[in-house]
Amino acid sequence: MTERLAALVDEAFPRAVARWSPFLLLARPAIDPDEEKLPARVNLRARTLTLGAPAIEARGLEGALEALLAHEIGHLVAFPGTLVAEARLRLLERTFLPRRARPLTGVFHELLINERLGGALEEDLCAILSSHDTTAWRRDPAFVFHLAVHEELWQRPPGELMGEAFEAFEAEFPGYRADAQLLAQNLFALAPNVTLQFLYFMSIALRYAIPPEGERAAEAEPECAEGEPSPEEWAEALVPQAAEKQAVRRAIEERWFPQEIAKVLAEQGIERRSAAMPGQSLGRSGIAEVMAAHYRREAERFLFKPPPVRLRADELVPTTLDDWEPGDPVGAIDWVATLIGRGETLGAAMPMTRERMADEEGLEDTVWQGRTEIYLDVSGSMPDPTRSINAMTLAAQILAMGTLRAGGAARALVYSTEHESHWTFCRSERILSRFLMSYIGGGTEFPFDVLNDSVEEQRREQPVRIIITDRDFDGNYDARPENAPIFARAAARSPALVLLLHAPDMKAARRYEAAGAKVVPVRTLDDFPRMAAALSFSLFDRPAEGPRH
User: CA-to-CA distance for 147 and 103, rounded, in angstroms?
Assistant: First the structure.
C-alpha cells in the first residue's frame, strides 16, 4: 500500500501545490504506515505534511489525494497560515466561550479552505468530508454543524455529508438548516478580514459549541492541523491588531451577539486576553513565560543604551588559530583566516578561531561594558505581572534589556517583605526577563544589607544601580540608622545610583540627592516605562567616569 500511495502522491502533490501557488516550496509529504485515524495532517510548527496510509485506504480516499493535500497546504499558507494567527482567534474565542476540547477555529478554517478549493475539487472534498465518523456527534455538535454548512455551500442533498448524525442532529437542533444557510450565504463575503469572518461564524455556531446536557465534551477525531503557539507567539497575539478591533466594533454595532457577550468582547485588554490563555496546556510557568515575552515586546519600544562602566583588562593580541566548536562565541571566528586557509566551502562548515592573549602580563587597557544592577519593588501595591501589566516590572524589563542590547550584562533582585535575586551578571534576555516576572506581594522592605554586600563585592567593577519603588522606600530608609550610610556609600561608589520613585515626597527625594543619588520622580504608574526610557538620556548627560572609591 505504501509504495502505491507514494506513486500516487508523486502525481497529486505538484497539482495540489499549484492550487495555491506555482512558486510555493514545500517538502514532499511523508507517509506514515501506522496512522489509522487521520488520512492527512499538517504540522504548523515544522511546516510538514504527513499522510496516514491505513486511514486513506480504510476511507477509500486514494482518488482524492490532490484535494486532501491541497486542503492541508491551505492550513500552511492561508488559514491559519501562522500559529500567531491561530493564537489570536483562540484568545478571542476564549474570552466569551467556555473551554472546549476542540477550539472552533478548526472547523472555521476548514470552511474557509474548502470554499477556496471548491469547484474542480468539490467532489473529492465531499468524499473526504463524508468519510468522517459522525456516530459520536453529541460530543461535538459544532463539527457536524460545519458539515451542514458545507452541504449548503455546495448545494448538496441534506445529510449527504452529515452521515449517520443527520436525523438525530435535526431533532436536537431544530432550525439548524437556516443557520447553515446564513453562514454559507454571508460568511465568505466578509473577507478579507478573517477576524470579522470568525466573529460572524461564532455568532451563529455558538449554539452548537456546547454539547447537549449530560454529554462529555470531546473531539470527534484529532485535528488535522497540529502545532501549539510558542510563548513568543502567544505574546504577540495578546495585543489586538487594528483589523481585530475593527471587527469587534462591527460585531457589536450590528448586534451579532447577546448584550452580555458583546460587553465582554468590547473589553479586549491585556488582563482579559491573558486570562483567556490555555492554562491547562501551558501551566502557570508557561503563562509566566508568555507574559515575560509580552513584556520584552513592550520593552522594545523604550530600549536604551546604558552608560558604559570602565573596566580594566589586559591588552590582547591575536596568536594561533584553532578549530571553532559549537558553543564557542561566534564573534571569535576569524573569517579572513578561515576563508584563506580552508576555502569558501570547507571554511563555512569548519571555521577557525584566533586565540588571543596578553602581549605583556599586567599591561592593561580600558574596556567599556554596560553593567546594571536592578532592585525591583514587587510589594502588594502593584499587580501580579503574570496577570496584567505591572508598570514597575515593565520599567525593569526596559532597563535590563537596554543593558543587554548595548552589549553589557545585568542582574536583578525583586523584593517585598522578602527578596529573591538572580545575582549573577547575565547576558540572556530570556533568563532575566523571566526572572523579573517574579512576584511576592505583601509589604515593602528594601534589602539594604544586600546593597551593602554588593558594594563591597564589586569593589573594582561597580555597576550602575537602579532602584524601582514608591514612597514606601522612605520608611525603609529611616527604619535603621545604618541604612543612610549604606545608601550614601553605594551612591559614592556606583557610576550612578538612580531611584525611579513613584509619587515621591520631594523633601525625601532631595535627601537622597544630597546623598549622591539621582532621583527620577514618576508622577503616575503609567509614566514608569517612559521614565525608564528617559533614564537613558539622564545617564548619558556627562561622559562616563571610572568607578569612584
Answer: 16
Determine contact, residues 384/390, Cβ cutoff 8 Å. yes
pTM listed for this prediction? 0.75
Give the CATH number of domain 369-539; options: 3.40.1160.10, 3.40.50.410, 3.90.76.10, 3.40.50.300. 3.40.50.410
Cell of 547: 568607578
Q: Which residues pair with 356 in a beta bridge?
A: 318
Domain residue extents for the chain? 1-77, 83-229, 316-359, 369-539
Spatial distance between the Cα atoms of 178 and 74, rounded to a whole number of angstroms: 28
Residue 238's alpha-carbon distances to 102, 242, 270, 273, 383, in angstroms, are: 21, 13, 6, 6, 18
Asked whether 163 and 132 are in contact (CB, 8 A), the reply is yes
Q: How far apart are CA 249 and CA 257, in angstroms?
A: 12
List pLDDT tens digits, range 370-422: 789 999 999 998 899 988 889 999 999 989 988 887 778 999 999 999 999 99
Positive or negative torsion for Cα 269, 44, 203, 248: positive
Residues 275-316 have pLDDT tens digits of 888 765 566 778 888 999 899 888 877 764 455 555 555 555
